[in-house]
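In response to reviewer comment 3 from the previous cycle, which asked for concrete evidence that the modeling workflow produces usable outputs, we include below a single protein chain processed end to end. The sequence was submitted unchanged, and the resulting structure tokens are shown without manual editing.
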Amino acid sequence: MALDWIPRDNTLKDHQIFTDDHFGTEPPCTMFEKKPLVNPNTGEKIEGLYTAWVTLNNPTQLGSYTTEMVKGVIAGMHKASMDRTIVATIFTGTGDRGFCTGGNTKEYAEYYTKRPKEYADYIDLFAGHIPAASRRDKLSLQCRPFQLPLKLEQNFLITEAPLHLKAYLVSFDLQVHYRGFSVPALIRAG
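The workflow returned the following structure tokens.
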């Protein structure tokens, strides 16, 4: 080939721009978990394939997001998108009464009132989480635990990515099947 004389760097690059600073475990926070894909027929984990779980953890305030939680959603979606081993992202919340009611009114009242510049900065940050949560290079499922129990079968065909998925929301569990393999059932109400 005409370009064979050009030296090539075949080392994979790391495209992550966020650290884990925006994730936590104690509410209110955004949690990020990387879970192995599981073969539904044998129960064995599939080596090298994972799903990312980005979880709004603020159940006492109905999943409302604080400024730090918005940063966590952006960081989590980017982290999942840049990880070559993650095949799907599950965006969900904790608790049994709400997935996300929107912005945290307590934070608005205590911090953003009478600070228009700060609130404008927050809105700019918030506006950034929408494209982050709707990236099309990986399947992103939004799961609302308070809608359980339901029985639902839906096929997803994402034309921008080579994924053909079936999602099953049965009782209190979500099963996502990808080319014959399934995501562990991790969403539970309560």
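The domain at 20-147 is CATH 3.90.226.10 (2-enoyl-CoA Hydratase; Chain A, domain 1). We consider this sufficient to address the reviewer's concern, and the full set will be provided in the supplementary archive.
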